[in-house]
Write a structure and sequence with these properties.
By secondary structure, the chain is an alpha+beta fold. It folds into two domains: about 160 residues, tt1808, chain A, CATH 3.90.1570; about 70 residues, no CATH class. The protein has eleven helices and six strands. α1 packs antiparallel against α2 and α7 crosses α11. The longest helix has 27 residues. The protein is elongated and about 75 Å long.
C-alpha cells in the first residue's frame, strides 16, 4: 500500500468525482480526439497535480514525436501520453508510435487513454523492443474515497513520480505473480523439499525429482504458468537468482575463517 499524503488524498477524492461527471458528459456527446486531449490536459492538472505550463508538454514541444502529450520534470520527459477520442476503444496498436519514440529516447513509460480508460505500459528495452501492460484504470468505476482506487491514480501523479511509486509498483508486479511463483515451485530447491517431505510422510515410497516436476507441470500448475513467454522469462529470473545465491553462499564459506583446534599437550 502506497502512503498518500492527506492533502493529495483530499484532492484525488474531490477531483476524481468531478471529472467522472465531465467524462460522462463528453462520452454522451461523443467528443473528438482534440476535445478529449483538452479534457485530459485539465485532468493532468486538477487530478494528477501537474503544473499545466511547466510539467505538461504537447506534441510540438517534443519535436514531432507523434504523441499527444508528455509529462516533463526537471527537463526530462517522464512518460508519454497517447490520447484517443473518448468514444474509441483502446487498442494495443495505438501505442506503436509512442513506444517507438520512447524506445529511441530512453523513456520507459507510456500511457494510452481515451479519458475514461487509462492503460499504463512499461517499455522493455530488448531486441526487438516490446512493452508490458502494467495496470489499467477505469475512471468511470473508481470510488473517489477508496484508498485502493486512489492508489491507482497516485502511481502516475506528480507526487507519485517524486517517490518513484510506479517503478516500485512495477518491480512488485514483476516479482509477485503466478509466473514467478510457478517458476520457484519448479526450481530445484523446492522440488528437493517436496521429495524430502514425501519421503518423511511415506518412508517406503520412492520418488524422483523428475516425477515431481512432471506432476507439478502437468497437473498442479496451469498451462500458461509453465508454457508461455512470461513463464520462460520467470524461469530465467529464478535460475539467475539461484545461481547468484549459490555464489554468495560459496563466497561466504570461503571467507569465513576456520577455527583452529587446539592440539592437546602431551605430559
Amino acid at each position: 500500500m502506497v502512503a498518500i499524503q492527506k492533502k493529495v488524498s483530499e484532492r484525488l477524492s474531490k477531483e476524481i468525482k468531478r471529472f467522472q461527471k465531465i467524462l460522462q458528459t463528453a462520452h454522451d456527446r461523443d467528443v473528438n480526439e482534440s476535445d478529449t486531449v483538452t479534457i485530459i490536459t485539465d485532468m493532468l492538472h486538477q487530478v494528477f497535480g501537474f503544473d499545466k505550463y511547466t510539467d505538461i508538454t504537447s506534441e510540438q514541444a517534443i519535436r514531432g514525436t507523434y504523441c499527444d502529450l508528455a509529462i516533463k520534470q526537471d527537463g526530462k520527459i517522464k512518460y508519454l501520453i497517447e490520447v484517443k477520442a473518448i468514444g474509441l476503444n483502446l487498442k494495443e496498436n495505438h501505442l506503436r508510435q509512442a513506444v517507438g519514440y520512447g524506445a529511441n529516447h530512453g523513456i520507459p513509460w507510456v500511457v494510452l487513454t481515451n479519458g475514461i480508460n487509462w492503460e499504463v505500459y512499461r517499455i522493455k528495452f530488448d531486441r526487438p523492443i516490446s512493452h508490458d501492460l502494467v495496470y489499467t484504470i477505469d475512471f468511470s468505476t473508481l470510488n473517489p474515497r477508496k484508498a485502493e482506487d486512489q492508489e491507482k491514480v497516485f502511481l502516475i501523479c506528480k507526487e507519485g513520480l517524486a517517490k518513484d511509486a510506479i517503478e516500485e509498483f512495477h518491480d512488485h508486479v514483476q516479482s509477485v505473480n503466478r509466473f514467478m511463483i510457478g517458476a520457484i515451485t519448479l526450481s530445484e530447491p523446492v522440488v528437493n523439499l517436496i521429495r524430502r517431505e514425501l519421503k518423511a510422510i511415506c518412508p517406503g515410497v520412492k520418488v524422483t525429482n523428475e516425477e515431481i516436476e512432471g506432476i507439478l507441470s502437468s497437473e498442479v500448475l496451469k498451462r500458461d504458468v509453465v508454457n508461455s513467454e512470461s513463464a520462460d522469462e520467470a524461469m530465467k529470473r529464478v535460475s539467475k537468482g539461484l545461481k547468484k545465491k549459490a555464489k554468495k553462499k560459496v563466497k561466504k564459506k570461503i571467507s569465513t575463517p576456520v577455527e583452529e583446534t587446539e592440539t592437546p599437550s602431551i605430559d
